[in-house]
Amino acid sequence: MLLLEEIWANMSERLWKFIFIRINDEMIADDLLQEVFVRVHQKMSQLKDSERLESWIFQITRNVIIDYYRSRRDHFEITETLQDSNELYEDPDATKELSGSIRQMIEALPDPYREALLMTEYEGISQQDLALRLGISLSGAKSRIQRARQKIKDDLLICCHFEFDRYGRVIDYWDHCCCCNNTETK
């Protein structure tokens, strides 16, 4: 069993980033990180499978964040001119960091899939125009694009763990292997 100090050394930076993305206040993120480790210390005996330590700690972290927002719920004012939730999202850093890796994964796809994905996603041509250019049916073009996207998704899910917001956008990730170009430790 890992000591709390080892867990701190291995995970505190990632956990702080995870919290900060959701809170956007450095001092509160520091406080919540401390609360996470207090709870980890208190509940360590409840961990049944040490192989799942990381996911267990991230669940505790999510619960600390939820508790923080619940405690502040009565203090939020909702204005009549509340912005569209899509306008409030301004943290595409994880997506930007992964874009180079995704491009490399696309380049590694078999020719028909790579060509279809590059033409539609990077050149911006429609699926109908893709079908015409390649001399295949529209359903064949859609199938190629769908299979290419699925191959990229499968590759990403093998090498990385992702955190998504409630809209399905990537807000954080950390890699398990070297396929992602990110040089930072997440």
What does this structure look like?
- It is a single chain.
- The chain contains eight helices and two strands, in the order ααααααααββ.
- It has 186 residues and is mostly helical.
- The chain has a two-stranded antiparallel sheet with strand order 1-2.
Q: Percent helix among the residues?
A: 55-70%
Number of helices: 8
CATH topology of the domain at 94-161: Arc Repressor Mutant, subunit A
Instruction: State the strand order across the main sheet.
Output: 1-2
CATH architecture of the domain at 94-161: Orthogonal Bundle
The CATH class of the domain at 94-161, by name, is Mainly Alpha
Which descriptors would you attach to this protein?
mainly alpha; Arc Repressor Mutant, subunit A; two-stranded antiparallel sheet; 8 helices
